[in-house]
């Protein structure tokens, strides 16, 4: 296992900065990646985005074998993908579900996350700054877990 933190982003997040700025702001995914790298300190970051459910699941499988922790913004798959939920169930280390918007203040279709019950923690509604906050929190969770082992 490595010390890498996997940050996995689902569909349409490649359009951040252009997509519905009134909901998601004007920060781009490249900006967010920079913020995450800065927040990670000694932990290497593996930062990825895909519009494919299959690819996202494959990355969770990869992370299960090698990562110290996962931050995942499943985007629309949050509400539809039992397969992604099942892959996250297999991840044995700290994990955070992340959403830029507060999904509970949006339309009712966005209120029921399939992922929330299988991750360590959920962060929602902090905008792009939720990402570096999630990175800092996950780094602390990983360090706490690693200290238990040593």
From TrEMBL:
Origin: domain of life: Bacteria
Keywords in alphabetical order: Amino-acid biosynthesis, Aromatic amino acid biosynthesis, Lyase, Membrane, Transmembrane, Transmembrane helix
Taxonomic lineage of the native organism: Bacteria, Pseudomonadati, Pseudomonadota, Gammaproteobacteria, Pseudomonadales
Keyword Glycosyltransferase appears in the UniProt entry: no
Short name of one Pfam family: DHquinase_II
Enzyme class: lyase
SUPFAM superfamilies, per the entry: Type II 3-dehydroquinate dehydratase
Assembly behavior: Homododecamer.
Positions bearing the site annotation: Transition state stabilizer: 19
PROSITE patterns in alphabetical order: DEHYDROQUINASE_II
Catalysis: reaction(s): 3-dehydroquinate = 3-dehydroshikimate + H2O
Binding positions for substrate per the UniProt entry: 73, 86, 100-101
NCBIfam families, sorted: PRK05395.1-2, PRK05395.1-3, PRK05395.1-4
UniProt record similarity statement: Belongs to the type-II 3-dehydroquinase family.
Active-site residues, Swiss-Prot/TrEMBL: 24, 99
Protein name: 3-dehydroquinate dehydratase
Biological pathway: Metabolic intermediate biosynthesis; chorismate biosynthesis; chorismate from D-erythrose 4-phosphate and phosphoenolpyruvate: step 3/7
């Amino acid at each position: 296992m490595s010390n890498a933190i996997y940050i996995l982003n689902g569909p349409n997040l490649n359009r951040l900065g252009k997509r519905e700025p009134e909901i998601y702001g004007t920060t781009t995914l490249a900006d967010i990646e920079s913020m995450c790298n800065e927040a990670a300190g000694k932990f290497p970051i593996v930062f990825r985005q895909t519009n494919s459910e299959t690819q996202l699941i494959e990355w969770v499988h990869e992370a299960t074998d090698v990562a110290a922790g996962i931050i995942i913004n499943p985007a629309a798959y949050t509400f539809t993908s039992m397969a992604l939920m099942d892959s996250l169930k297999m991840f044995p280390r700290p994990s955070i579900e992340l959403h830029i918007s507060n999904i509970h203040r949006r339309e009712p279709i966005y209120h029921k996350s399939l992922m929330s019950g299988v991750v360590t923690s959920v962060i929602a509604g902090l905008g792009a700054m939720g990402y570096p906050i999630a990175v800092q929190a996950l780094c602390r969770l990983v360090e706490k877990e690693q200290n238990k082992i040593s």
